[in-house]
User: Which sequence fits this backbone?
DNA sequence: TATTAGCACTCTCTTTGTATGAGTGCTAAC
DNA sequence: GTTAGCACTCATACAAAGAGAGTGCTAATA
């Protein structure tokens, strides 16, 4: 079902105009740019409607692109712009000399992305199924209070306070570090469970009481540090979208479900992923498009950044910006891990 | 301008019914509970309108309370319920054996508060103008990467990654701890500024290059740990409010301005604070009520929790719940500091 | 055969008019 | 001081009419 050049031109014009204005597009305004009469345009549009690329809100309105039409446009018609070097450097410069944890980098990336695109943005902290614990540290903060710190191979750092039943002496601290080195470092959080920790604790004899809270906290930390976090920025941007008015409550509710959002942003194996409306298979997002781009650390995709906006989002402008930021995030994170 | 008992009864009835239904209240429904005719009620309501306690959306509608009327109700008429012991213990139990940092406690408190009240909730992490640095720690994470940890007298803990120009040896680490003990611990973040840190760094001679990033990071951390953070939970609850429909975008924008929200929640010197609509002196919140209660640590108010909802919020139910949670937060935080 | 002008048709949107009903304010009687 | 009665006001719902935008179809044209 190959489209004629003229049909492609008309479909492109309808979509680009609709994205710009949000209004249905009539045959009259289109014929100007095509040097054919409005009747010809009407005939063509009628056929584009027949194959499901355009639809009519009602008989006497112009045409708006269907989600299927937009999909065709993105796959076949959309001009591929790249962002200017100026824009690229301007974003890059905001990450120069970055000092911080992965989640700070992604929070910044989400903020920048939301500013640039005018959309709600989402970022996922690095998640790697092969992630393992790289380092465990413990810092006493009070007589019975210690801060346990964990660093993952992904660069994720987490810390948590732990309160002990008694005072922590040097012997106990040494024991803790030995256990961490023997049972935790180099392992992934899937490798140990509550039962394993308990049997480990029991084997410690009179030190069990002292060690148990520390080991439980460490186990919790490993779990938390292995989970991916999602960061959402610019939620209020969705409130301005008229076509999302009835969805916005449900969308905000969905935002609380990190796993669901993460799976939408992280979908597929390709670097860049575009979900148009119902393609997300999620009722709350049936009128939104979700555009995301994965970032890689050490040659593996470990997370993604993206935006959520109305279906009539400016794809050709937004997509290269998302890719650019995901590349930068990947680079910054990679440098972070190397050290 | 003392109101007659009957006027008080009528004002109370109008307000409580309006809070429940959101609809204007007519004279007919009111006369049933008062054993007078609707005409009498009308006369009384007319006078209550004259003094500005009630208003009419339009001639043939019933009356709704004005913000002034609600203020009078809260100050003089509202029954003061207390929450049941069952409710109190149920909330208390969610904080038993709490392991975590202050901000985790407040995040939990905000979540619980939002669940209980059905409103958007806000919590402020402890802020104390007299706060000082209690402890500084440093943990090496990589050859050139260290994590610097700071603990404030308020119990706030913050950590930040710092990248050094060279490898950190034991001598440098010792020097860092010495400087921290001499210049940072026991001081507040206001006591040092960039200039002071720079002159300090210069005085270190050949160690300056090594120490500067560490000291800059430490200074940043002290600043961050001294600032109060605000936590907002259940934002989407505002989307359900019809009377806030036109304000919700502006409200969400305001939520990004931590200082503005903090000042609203932390207003005044009383433990409990109620801002009805325009009393907040903030256009975005002219149709919302903000109810908050300060929590104290060591006998001083250092933060607050509260809710933001429509002016027709169920004050008599919400207020005691907020107070209860603020008390619990104060207790949990106080225990945390003691250690 | 592809294109186009012309025209009837459809449907939304806005305006106007009318009826309904809830609730009020006022007046005169109790 | 209280109340019954009634005229009045205003929002809301609904129907009818006109304007406007855009279409689909048909017949003429290149």
Assistant:
């Amino acid at each position: 079902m190959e489209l004629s050049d003229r049909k492609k031109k008309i479909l492109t014009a309808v979509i680009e105009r609709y994205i710009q204005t949000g209004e249905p597009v009539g045959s009259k305004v289109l014929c100007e740019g095509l040097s054919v009469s409005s009747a010809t345009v009407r005939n063509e549009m009628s056929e584009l409607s027949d194959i499901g690329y355009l639809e009519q809100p009602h008989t006497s309105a112009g045409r708006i692109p269907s989600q299927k039409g937009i999909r065709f446009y993105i796959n076949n018609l959309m001009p591929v712009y790249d962002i200017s070097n100026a824009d690229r450097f301007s974003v890059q410069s905001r990450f120069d000399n970055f000092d911080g944890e992965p989640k700070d980098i992604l929070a910044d990336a989400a903020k920048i992305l939301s500013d640039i695109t005018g959309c709600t943005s989402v970022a996922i902290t690095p998640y790697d199924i092969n992630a393992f614990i790289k380092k465990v540290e413990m810092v006493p903060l009070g007589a019975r209070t210690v801060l346990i710190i964990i660093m993952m191979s992904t660069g994720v750092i987490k810390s948590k306070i732990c309160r002990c039943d008694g005072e922590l002496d040097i012997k106990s601290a040494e024991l803790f570090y030995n256990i961490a080195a023997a049972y935790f470092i180099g392992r992934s959080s899937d490798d140990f469970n509550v039962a394993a920790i308990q049997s480990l604790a029991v084997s410690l004899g009179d030190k069990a009481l002292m060690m148990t809270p520390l080991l439980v906290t460490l186990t919790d930390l490993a779990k938390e540090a292995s989970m991916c976090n999602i960061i959402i920025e610019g939620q209020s941007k969705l409130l301005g979208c008229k076509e999302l008015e009835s969805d916005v409550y449900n969308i905000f509710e969905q935002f609380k479900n990190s796993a669901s959002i993460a799976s939408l942003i992280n979908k597929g194996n390709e670097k860049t992923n575009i979900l148009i409306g119902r393609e997300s298979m999620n009722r709350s997002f049936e009128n939104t498009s979700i555009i995301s781009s994965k970032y890689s650390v050490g040659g593996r995709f470990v997370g993604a950044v993206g935006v959520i906006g109305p279906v009539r989002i400016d794809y050709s402008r937004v997509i290269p910006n998302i890719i650019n930021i995901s590349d930068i995030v990947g680079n910054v994170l990679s440098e972070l891990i190397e050290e």
Summary: Residues 24, 26-28, 38-39, 42-43, 45-46, 56, 59-62 of chain B lie near DNA strand C (CB under 10 Å from a C1'). Chain B touches chain A through 32 residues (CB under 8 Å). The two ends of chain B are 54 Å apart (CA to CA). The CA atoms of residues 8 and 77 of chain B lie 7 Å apart.
